Amino acid sequence: MHEMSVLNNLMNKVTELNALHGGKRVISMKLRLGALSHFTPQHFREHFDFASRGTVAEGARLELTQMTDETDPDAQGVVLESLEFET
Predict the structure, then answer these.
(1) pTM for this model (two decimals)
(2) CB under 8 Å to 57, separation ≥6 — which residues?
(3) What are the boundaries of each domain within the chain?
(4) Contact 24, 87 (CB under 8 A)
(5) What number does CATH give the domain 2-86?
(6) One digit per residue, pLDDT tens: the chain, 87 residues?
(7) Spatial distance between the Cα atoms of 1 and 56, rounded to a whole number of angstroms
């Protein structure tokens, strides 16, 4: 359940940023997966594929970095570092 909440929040933010920047769709995303986020890169991709269906991010290329520092302030989350838009 935690995973879908994280992905839904991410998709809302990505959709908002895409509209703000006049994008047609999201081409790629760079994200950091917190050490305590319950995501591995493969696990995140599976959830992302489901959550992004029918959105501006469907089919976007993902660049994922798995963080290992459990004391990092973002250790429990997923941090969106950058987006590339098709305009």
Answers:
(1) 0.91
(2) 11, 14, 15, 18, 25, 26, 29, 48
(3) 2-86
(4) yes
(5) 3.30.2320.50
(6) 578 899 999 999 999 999 999 999 999 999 999 999 999 999 999 999 999 999 999 999 999 999 999 999 999 999 999 999 998
(7) 23
